[in-house]
Design goal:
alpha+beta, five-stranded parallel beta sheet, 12 helices, globular, binds adenosine monophosphate, binds glycine
């Protein structure tokens, strides 16, 4: 059996491992208590020590730091780009320059290290103002505001290093775009691009898209998009991206995740991530199930086949720890989960994916900061999947639980 090592410790990695468990011999490194409780092997060993036939790298940081390069140098097939390809996500300034070279539609922008220059650019811009840290910031480095004062203060906090350290000392200021957001993840084998179904991520902490940005509070898929939409994105976004990557000598084998804003003027690229989205993967992996295995092998080996057709829909609701995303409290007892980390009373079409959980001495689960679990429902329609996800999520309780009630409530609204 193919031994597949999944690198990471969150709900995304749990979802990938769960989808592959019947077709591959799966090990997650390091994994977490909830993944292990679910009967999936977890190991503290480095991926290369686990004799992998395939490695899937979940988070962005190891990609940016060159983990895929070092594994490939040992002859191990990997889903995930090398450090050069990972710059698409690791540096927003690099990304913008790249998109311009590739002629992929994206918001107008400026790149700044100097406070006065940034201030002048802001003064000449129209709201909403968008200020981004250049480097990685766990999904929290972007401010979108209609207040010029707030934008100026944010630029100052970022450039000084106070807000995000080194990652913030260069900022990208962008034209604010308005519309519906969409995550379109595609596998890329260095030449071909195979898109998965579109998902919507809910990034703000509060209902109705209010409050600060988070790592993601829920998602659903598939999104209901006009016929030809995905083909258009492949033609005008993904294909020119791969051409430009190849022109730069980059053999990109991994996930190209396009964060798109669907504006009245058409789609624009907000960002590329170079990995599976979190929480998008908590809906996509259950939808593709074991079929994901062939896709990942094809991606790593430079021989991608077509994606299987999807017949169901999925909705995931994230439950985060008290104070999220500001603070990160740990140690609150989680009610509603059995010894396997799933609902005490199993619900059809529901899986609980673990992120920030840990086990107490008595075997029960408690919170371990940040996003705690992602509760996914699958069913033939988004509405049914939503009902399943929320009915199950309501049963998983802990002190100060932070969650949104409007994930997938309207499939025509902005998400955010
Ligand atoms: P990013 O990490 O670049 O995707 O930005 C995080 C979030 O900020 C996005 O999902 C959007 O909600 C928002 N955002 C980013 N860029 C823009 C923009 N140019 N206009 C409006 N909103 C944006
Ligand atoms: N869902 C947003 C991300 O994975 O970055």
């Amino acid at each position: 059996m193919t031994r597949c090592v999944v690198v990471g410790a969150g709900a995304r990695e749990h979802a990938i491992a769960h989808a592959l468990r019947d077709v591959f011999d799966v090990v997650v490194t390091p994994g977490n208590a909830g993944i292990a409780a679910h009967g999936i092997a977890c190991s503290e060993e480095k991926p290369e020590q686990l004799q992998p036939d395939l490695v899937v790298i979940g988070p962005e940081a190891p990609l940016v730091n060159g983990l895929a390069d070092s594994l490939r140098a040992r002859g191990i097939p990997v889903v995930g780009p090398g450090s050069q390809g990972a710059r698409l996500e690791g540096s927003k300034a690099y990304l913008k320059e790249f998109l311009q070279a590739a002629e992929v539609p994206t918001a107008a922008y400026g790149i700044f290290t100097d406070l006065d220059e940034a201030g002048r650019y802001l003064a000449d811009s129209r709201p909403p103002f968008v200020v981004k840290t250049d480097g990685l910031a766990a999904g929290k480095g972007v401010l979108v505001t209609t207040s010029l004062d707030e934008a100026r203060a944010d630029v100052a906090a970022k450039l000084s290093g106070d807000a995000f350290g080194e990652a913030g000392t260069t900022v990208v200021i962008e034209e604010g775009l308005e519309g519906v957001e969409c995550s379109l993840l595609a596998l890329c084998d260095g030449e071909k691009v195979v898109p998965l179904v579109a998902a919507q991520d809910f990034k703000r902490v509060g209902d109705g898209g209010t409050g600060p940005n988070t790592g993601g509070m829920g998602a659903y898929a598939p999104m209901d998009l006009p016929a030809g939409f995905v083909d258009d994105i492949v033609e005008r976004f993904f294909n020119p991206t791969v051409t430009e990557l190849r022109r730069r000598g980059i053999d990109f084998r991994g996930v190209l995740y396009a964060g798109l804003m669907l504006t009245e003027r058409g789609p624009y690229l907000l960002e590329y991530n170079v990995r599976f989205g979190d929480p998008e993967t908590e809906v996509l992996a259950p939808l593709y199930g074991p079929g994901l295995g062939e896709l990942l092998l094809g991606c790593a080996h430079g021989a991608l086949g077509p994606a299987p057709a999807i017949t169901n829909a999925a909705v995931t609701v994230v439950l985060a720890s008290s104070g999220y995303p500001g603070g990160s409290r740990s140690g609150d007892l989680i009610e509603g989960l059995g010894p396997d980390g799933q609902l005490i009373e199993p619900h059809e079409g529901v899986t609980v994916f673990h992120a920030g959980t840990r086990r107490r001495a008595d075997g029960r689960f408690e919170t371990n900061g940040g996003r705690v679990v992602a509760v996914t429902g699958t069913a033939p329609t988004v509405a049914q999947a939503r009902e399943r996800a929320y009915r199950a999520a309501a049963l998983v309780t802990f002190e100060g639980r932070v969650w949104r009630r409007d994930i997938a409530a309207s499939t025509t609204q902005g998400g955010s």
